[in-house]
Design goal:
This is Nucleotide-binding universal stress UspA family protein. By secondary structure, the protein is an alpha/beta fold. Helices cover 45% and strands 19% of the residues. About 3% of the residues have low confidence.
Length: 161
């Protein structure tokens, strides 16, 4: 089997770095194009949870709301965007000259958007780490890699440390 386009999921974890190394090895062997991607998880950065209360009753229901919450949310979002840019800049530095690559950065659901990107870029293979920078929520509902393996229409190479 020859892989023309390899989608590489990057999140800053050690497993993702190993996935990048594996993808580079495959790209060198098959002459593949790499799509280096980072998806900022939207579930952590939605303002819907942080809108100021409109009524006293609503305020009572959300006693933990603080007026500076929106500013902190923006600061956190800006930090996460910069973090994603750094991940991709570092990844790009690990791609040897002569390997064709493209950077894809988006905000959304890593599970869903990896599948969409595989379709959009017509990837023949998805390469990702077995564990990312996950949270307790991912332990409860399943990891991104497990979801992608179960739902992808193309082969998925999951790299363990």
């Amino acid at each position: 089997m020859r892989y023309q386009t390899i989608l590489v999921a990057l999140d800053g974890s050690d497993h993702a770095q190993l996935a990048l190394e594996a993808a580079v090895t495959l790209a060198e062997k098959f002459g593949s194009r790499l799509i280096l991607t980072h998806i900022m998880d939207i579930q952590y950065f939605t303002t819907a949870w942080f809108e100021p209360p409109r009524t006293r009753s609503e305020a009572d229901d959300r006693v933990d709301y603080k007026p500076d919450t929106e500013a902190k949310l923006k600061e956190t979002t800006d930090y996460q965007r910069e973090f994603g840019r750094r991940i991709l800049a570092t990844a790009k530095d690990h791609v040897p000259a002569g390997i064709d690559y493209e950077i894809a950065y988006t905000v959304g659901s890593p599970r869903e958007d990896l599948l969409k990107m595989a379709d959009t870029y017509k990837a023949d293979l998805i390469v990702m780490g077995s564990r990312g920078m996950g949270t307790l929520a991912s332990m409860l509902v399943g990891s991104v890699s497990s979801y992608v393996v179960q739902h992808a229409e193309v082969p998925v190479l999951v790299i363990k440390q």
